[in-house]
């Protein structure tokens, strides 16, 4: 027994692994459509199966890549010798025989791309052995725009083929429409995320400047400090790059925010921070704590409360960070809070909460929404959990 | 055998457990509750983080095992402390900064972020759990041995005690300020070895400095292929450190790549300082506890020496100090590993998430190695830990090094490398531990020190399969590479400018 023996063992292990993979693949293969039913049903199954195979690539829209992957399936669906998919300018894919027709096909399609009607034409091929004598072309239209055409070739004129090509083309159109729908949905989500990026309220800017103004004569040094805080805070809040930030930067911005608030309310507001240093590098959506702190300040100082205490803590919890923002202010009726989080709040109150909740769910999934404990006159405690790592989330 | 006074040792062990729980639970509250933001948001400085990493890293193998091996097998065993330390050099040069910049918290995170594949992530998770369990078994066995020697308690009691304390502390969230706990543990361990060592050396001088002789070492050499075994050890420890789950997790605490590098340099210094001590115990053990060379647990040398050399009340006191340090070693490494393994289990094995699942995962993470430590026959602590290093070196090292430095790594390549490299190492270790292959001859040597062949197998499989599947290179590779290798200078400079005003 030497190194050679070990090598043999390793090779055997590799072979075994390969065999296992193959076996796994074979066993999970789905039941083939032809295994059950009558011949007619078989044909139906085959057709539906082929169509279902062609659908996924088309859902990516009409590109060279998607056309290439779909064309093979579409041609077997039509049973023609050659099939060609084009967009408005050029041939995207040519599947089957007679590639030499590819260069003059766009000539034949000029009218079709203009008026969007089916046409049939003789291929006019000089090569007598070429089986492609006749072709039917059907436009691919999405929302009344002609995106391209499907061209099926045959040895002779065929009404059956014309009909089939028309049906297949319409099926392709539906898929392309779905693709369009997918795209607009993604755009909508992106636009939503952009809109959801929290904005600092105009009231806050106004109040801060007013508070700073009150210090200009009595305490110029303090006023200068506050102006610098204000400048820093706005620079951070108005920045446009990057969707994510780190907990350290976010807490820093909150500190500046609180400094400005304290300038206005002085002793009425007390803040306690408890931060585990381990979680400072955690990445999180930009400006998703600040609205919660703003909320706590507002609730804390609302009404007849003379003094208010806000506690902000960020603790290490295994593979997550746990951030808790707590105030001892007026609190809120839980039912009303539920309405706000369902998006039925109506007025401007609580927009910040809803916004943060939605962004957290969008980034981390529904398990990571806000957890809020509150009652009328009982203060409010907001808990959020942030995973230390999530693919695609990088603090910048 | 003059056993040290049981009472003093019990008190020392109880104190360490209590202090660990207290620092873990309240350390944060005392030091960080403030209204001053600049105090609250201070990131962990490299030196503090380095002490924490060292505290977590110096395990039973370092505290007890190295001295025992030197005692029995002589100065050749000094490769152990060298390897344990030098692993951080490789980590520093190839991995530290890019790993931090990747933003990954655990190895599965890194695999998923770099290769964009859930499959690779799952495989890495399985290997992390395997390597973690392998590393936990000797920690628990070491605890059992320590308690048995110090207090005469039955062998299984220490295993169960440490497992229970760790499970309770981790599951209850008592390790909230884990950094401070680990820093405390490092200095405790260093003190617990340093102070008795000073007294022992003084006593040895007072004894007329008898010479330590290692001449008869060949008679008890543990492997019939010593050179091969040494190389196996070197490869495993040099390349395995970077993949230890509890070490990787700690780099997340560094604020940026540069600090991660500085941290690693400080770790080198701190770990290096610590490893000067165990060989002293080994050499003195050769003189004063020679019977341990023939049968008996050589790992016990460190614990027995004070009573043997100094004796009396002083000996009891020093023995208790060492016992406390040893328990600090078990607790810190075991809790760090349990946290890391439990984190991986919650994320990738159990279906849903939440605190309840983390607790369940914690119990699972410590229960399996506990059963293992009670069932498996005792292997010297340092050897058992060496096996965990070998598994890590042949699976995670190729993944990290190629993932960070090679654009053409593909998910199938990574899977092949992990399965062939890590899988074969794991298999070899399992066979060795089961005792199916007995010492004399090459088969045992190859299986007991697998790193020499399994690391190249892992690298080769990863490279060849990646080259064979060029179409599967993840689309985000360039973006990931840019993030790994460009310093965060721009953004952090801006932030720093804002802060320093």
From TrEMBL, chain A:
A single Gene Ontology MF term assigned here is: kinase activity
Indicate the segments forming the Histidine kinase domain, all copies: 289-390
Per UniProt, the keywords (alphabetical) are: Kinase, Oxidoreductase, Transferase
Q: What Pfam family is a match, any one?
A: HATPase_c
> InterPro entries annotated for this entry?
Bact_2-comp_sensor_kinase, HATPase_C_sf, HATPase_dom, His_kinase_dom, Sig_transdc_His_kin_internal
Protein name per its UniProtKB record: Two-component system sensor histidine kinase
Q: Where does this protein come from, organism-wise?
A: Streptomyces globisporus
Automatic annotation (TrEMBL), chain B:
Q: Could you tell me which Pfam families the record lists for this protein?
A: SSF (PF00474)
Is tRNA-binding included in the keywords of this UniProt record?
Answer: no
Task: Enumerate the InterPro entries for this protein.
Answer: Na/Glc_symporter_sf (IPR038377), Na/solute_symporter (IPR001734), Na/solute_symporter_CS (IPR018212), Sodium:Solute_Symporter (IPR050277)
Which chain regions cross the lipid bilayer? 6-28, 48-72, 78-99, 120-136, 156-174, 186-206, 226-252, 264-284, 317-346, 358-379, 385-406, 413-434, 446-468
**UniProt entry tagged with the keyword Ion transport:** yes
Gene3D superfamilies the UniProt entry points to: Sodium/glucose cotransporter (1.20.1730.10)
The membrane-topology field of this record reads:
Multi-pass membrane protein
Q: Where in the cell is it found?
A: Cell membrane
Domain of life per record:
Bacteria
Q: Which UniProt keywords apply?
A: Cell membrane, Ion transport, Membrane, Sodium, Symport, Transmembrane, Transmembrane helix, Transport
Record-linked PROSITE patterns:
NA_SOLUT_SYMP_2, NA_SOLUT_SYMP_3
Family statement:
Belongs to the sodium:solute symporter (SSF) (TC 2.A.21) family.
Spell out the protein name for this chain. Answer: Na+/solute symporter
């Amino acid at each position: 027994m030497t190194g050679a023996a070990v090598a043999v063992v390793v090779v055997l292990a590799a072979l075994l692994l390969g065999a296992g993979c193959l076996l796994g693949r074979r066993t999970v293969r789905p039941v083939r459509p032809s295994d059950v039913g009558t011949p007619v049903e078989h044909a139906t199954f085959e057709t539906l199966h082929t169509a279902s195979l062609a659908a996924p690539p088309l859902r990516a829209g009409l590109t060279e890549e998607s056309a290439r992957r779909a064309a093979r399936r579409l041609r077997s669906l039509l049973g023609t010798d050659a099939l060609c998919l084009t967009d408005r300018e050029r041939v995207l894919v040519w599947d089957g025989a007679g590639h030499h027709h590819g260069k003059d096909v766009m000539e034949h399609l000029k009218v079709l791309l203009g008026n969007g009607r089916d046409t049939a034409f003789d291929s006019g091929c000089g090569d007598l052995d070429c089986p492609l004598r006749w072709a039917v072309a059907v436009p691919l239209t999405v929302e009344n725009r002609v995106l391209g055409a499907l061209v099926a070739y045959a040895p002779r004129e065929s009404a059956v083929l014309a009909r089939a090509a028309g049906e297949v083309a319409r099926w392709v159109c539906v898929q392309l429409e779905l693709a369009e729908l997918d795209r607009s949905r993604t755009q909508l989500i992106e636009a939503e995320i952009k809109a959801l990026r929290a904005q600092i309220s105009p009231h806050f800017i106004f109040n801060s400047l007013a508070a700073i103004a009150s210090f200009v004569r009595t305490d110029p040094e303090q006023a200068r400090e506050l102006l610098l805080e204000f400048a820093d805070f706005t620079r951070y809040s108005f920045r446009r790059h990057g969707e994510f930030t780190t907990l350290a930067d976010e807490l820093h911005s909150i500190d500046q925010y609180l400094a400005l608030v304290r300038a206005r309310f002085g002793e009425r507001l007390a803040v306690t921070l408890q931060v585990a240093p381990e979680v400072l590098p955690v990445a999180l959506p930009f400006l998703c704590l600040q609205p919660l702190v703003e909320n706590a300040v507002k609730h804390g100082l609302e009404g007849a409360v003379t003094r208010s205490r806000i506690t902000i803590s960020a603790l290490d919890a295994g593979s997550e960070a746990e951030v808790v923002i707590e105030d001892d202010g007026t609190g809120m009726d839980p039912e009303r809070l539920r309405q706000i989080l369902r998006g039925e709040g109506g007025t401007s109150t609580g927009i910040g909460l809803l916004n943060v909740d939605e962004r957290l769910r969008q980034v981390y999934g529904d398990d990571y929404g806000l957890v809020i404990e509150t009652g009328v006159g009982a203060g409010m405690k907001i808990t959020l959990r942030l995973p230390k790592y999530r693919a695609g989330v990088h603090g910048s | 055998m003059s056993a040290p006074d049981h009472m003093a040792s019990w008190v020392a062990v109880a104190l360490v457990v209590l202090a660990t729980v207290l620092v873990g639970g309240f350390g944060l509250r005392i030091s960080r509750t403030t209204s001053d933001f600049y105090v609250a948001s201070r990131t962990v400085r490299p030196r503090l983080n380095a002490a924490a990493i060292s505290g977590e890293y110096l395990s039973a193998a370092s505290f007890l095992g190295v001295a025992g091996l030197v005692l029995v097998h002589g100065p050749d065993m000094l490769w152990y402390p060298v390897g344990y330390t030098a692993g951080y050099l490789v980590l520093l040069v190839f991995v530290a900064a890019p790993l931090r910049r990747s933003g990954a918290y655990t190895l599965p995170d890194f695999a998923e972020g770099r290769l964009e594949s859930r499959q690779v992530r799952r495989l890495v998770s399985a290997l992390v759990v395997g390597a973690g369990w392998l590393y936990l078994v000797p920690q628990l066995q070491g605890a059992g041995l320590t308690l048995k020697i110090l207090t005469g308690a039955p062998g299984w009691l220490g295993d169960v005690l440490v497992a229970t304390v760790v499970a309770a502390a981790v599951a209850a969230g008592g390790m909230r300020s884990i950094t401070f706990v680990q820093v405390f543990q490092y200095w405790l361990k260093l003190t617990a070895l340093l102070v008795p060592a000073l007294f022992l050396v003084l006593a040895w001088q007072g004894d007329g400095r008898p010479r330590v002789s290692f001449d008869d070492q060949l008679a008890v050499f543990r492997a019939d292929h010593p050179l091969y075994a040494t190389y196996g050890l070197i490869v495993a420890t040099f390349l395995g450190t970077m993949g230890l789950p509890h070490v990787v997790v700690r780099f997340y605490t560094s604020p940026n790549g540069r600090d991660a590098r500085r941290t690693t340099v400080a770790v080198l210094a701190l770990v290096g300082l610590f490893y000067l001590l165990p060989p002293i115990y080994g050499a003195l053990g050769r003189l004063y506890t020679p019977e341990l060379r023939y049968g008996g647990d050589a790992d016990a040398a460190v614990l027995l020496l004070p009573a043997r050399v100094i004796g009396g009340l002083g000996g009891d006191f020093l023995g208790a100090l060492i016992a406390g340090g040893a328990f600090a070693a078990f607790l810190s490494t075991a809790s760090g590993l349990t946290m890391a393994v439990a984190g991986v289990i919650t994320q990738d094995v159990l279906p849903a998430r939440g605190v309840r699942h983390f607790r369940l995962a914690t119990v699972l993470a410590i229960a399996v190695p506990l059963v293992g430590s009670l069932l498996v026959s005792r292997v010297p602590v340092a050897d058992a830990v060496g096996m965990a290093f070998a598994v890590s070196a042949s699976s995670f090292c190729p993944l990290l090094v190629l993932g960070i430095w090679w654009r053409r790594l593909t998910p199938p390549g990574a899977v092949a490398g992990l399965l062939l490299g890590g899988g074969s190492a794991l298999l070899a270790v399992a066979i060795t531990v089961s005792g199916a292959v007995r010492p004399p001859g090459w088969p045992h040597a190859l299986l007991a020190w697998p790193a020499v062949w399994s690391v190249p197998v892992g690298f080769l499989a990863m490279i060849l399969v990646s080259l064979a599947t060029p179409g599967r290179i993840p689309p985000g590779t360039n973006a990931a590479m840019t993030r790994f290798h460009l310093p965060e200078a721009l953004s952090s400079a801006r932030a720093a400018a804002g802060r320093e005003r």
